[in-house]
Design goal:
single chain, Rossmann fold, 2 domains, 10 helices, binds S-adenosylmethionine
Length: 359
């Protein structure tokens, strides 16, 4: 965590925010700095100053975990938080064999493989031929073109995964970029890229066979980037903190896509813009059916389509639950976005891009 981001963005205690406490009384402050390195707090504690709260939030491997249900999160992710980073790839392979397919160890490696490949594979000299990585960068680039650039001020990259889009946003101008996600292993990879200039990940070849890849990386403007652990549906920021929000392929990954959309006017400054992309790949593992935008009830007016529901929610008066204070300024259909599974398998989604502005 960079102290500059902490000071400039002024995160508040997520528990107090949900309880309606004045942000000035719950702005998080560092109480213990156990390890610092080149302007990053690598290990430390932040505390809520509200005398009735006093909750503490850890900073681990440079990543602050600003999550309301911290106990639940840590209890569920402790294997990933405590995972060894120093193991030889052969030992890692043996451990992977022991845990087997479908284990949480395997699932974490698959996620790292998929997202690190797409985000950083273009910088890997060993990555040649088809399919071509970099689809998230191409979607972002098109989103920025459609938005006609972003207003001055901090940018939030929601669901940043392993972080390449945050680095790409930092070259767009002299502004702070904050990447947030809930996956600790993905944030750890992003933080390693930021602090150490190194991307190291298990690239899946076949079955539970993964090859270790190590890529040196360096991004101009990276001093403006930081990565935090936050819930996209419960963000710990005072109103109007961001000039822009980018949420690529996240809408169909959260429990309530409507709540994510509804949080945008609160997060954005007046005139702020949000760039959203989504493949509408609904799954009850992420989103209960009742909260999907379309994808069900094909007998209804929109025949189950998702696109008109998203558009109506972002158009004043077009839907009973339309989000007030936003208007669509540009949209584009069917951009390719690739999710690589292994050497012989990848899924190509067609995502829709929507740019909205806060009135
Ligand atoms: C489909 S991936 C897209 C990642 C990246 N934006 C991209 O396009 O390559 C969705 C990301 O959202 C994150 N995510 C899911 N639910 C979240 C939540 N409630 N808060 C923050 N991040 C979340 C996941 O961990 C994952 O990294």
């Amino acid at each position: 965590m960079r102290s500059g981001h902490l000071e400039a963005l002024g995160p508040v205690c997520p528990v107090c925010r949900a309880g309606g406490i004045d942000p000035e009384k719950s702005r998080l402050a560092p109480v213990s700095l156990f390890e610092e390195e080149d302007g990053h707090i690598v290990q430390g504690l932040l505390r809520c100053p509200n005398p009735a709260c006093q909750r503490e939030y850890p900073i681990l491997d440079g990543i602050p975990l600003l999550i309301a249900n911290l106990r639940g999160y840590v209890a569920g992710a402790i294997d990933q938080i405590g995972a060894r980073e120093d193991l030889d790839p052969e030992i890692e392979g043996l451990l992977g064999d022991c845990c087997g397919p479908g284990s949480s160890y395997d699932t974490t490696r698959q996620h790292l493989s998929t997202y690190a490949w797409d985000h950083y594979g273009d910088l890997d000299p060993a990555e040649m031929g088809e399919p071509r990585p970099g689809s998230v960068l191409r979607v972002l680039e098109r989103g920025l073109e459609l938005a006609g650039g972003l207003p001055e001020g901090p940018v939030l990259d929601l669901g940043c995964a392993v972080g390449r889009s945050s680095f790409a946003l930092a070259v767009q101008g002299d502004r702070l970029v904050l990447g947030v996600d809930l996956s600790f292993p993905m944030l750890r990879l992003a933080s390693e890229a930021l602090r150490r200039g190194r991307v190291r990940y298990p690239r899946r070849r076949v079955g539970i066979v993964y090859d270790r890849r190590e890529i040196p990386v360096s991004f101009s403007g990276s001093e403006a980037v930081d990565f935090w652990g936050c819930d996209a549906l419960d963000l710990p920021f005072p109103e109007g903190t961001f000039a822009a929000v980018v949420a690529l392929n996240v809408l169909d990954c959260v429990a309530s896509p409507h709540d994510l959309l509804a949080s945008l006017p609160r997060l954005l400054k007046p005139g702020g813009k949000a760039i959203l992309s989504t493949p509408y790949d609904w799954s009850p593992r992420a989103t209960p059916i009742e909260a999907w935008l379309g994808g069900h009830s094909q007998r209804g007016e929109t025949a189950g389509a998702s696109e008109p529901v998203l558009r109506a929610l972002l158009t004043p008066g077009a839907h009973p639950a339309a989000v007030a204070g936003l208007r669509i300024v540009a949209e584009e259909r069917d951009l390719p976005w690739r999710v690589r599974m292994h050497e012989r398998s990848s899924v190509e989604y067609r995502v829709d891009l929507v740019v909205v502005e806060r009135g």
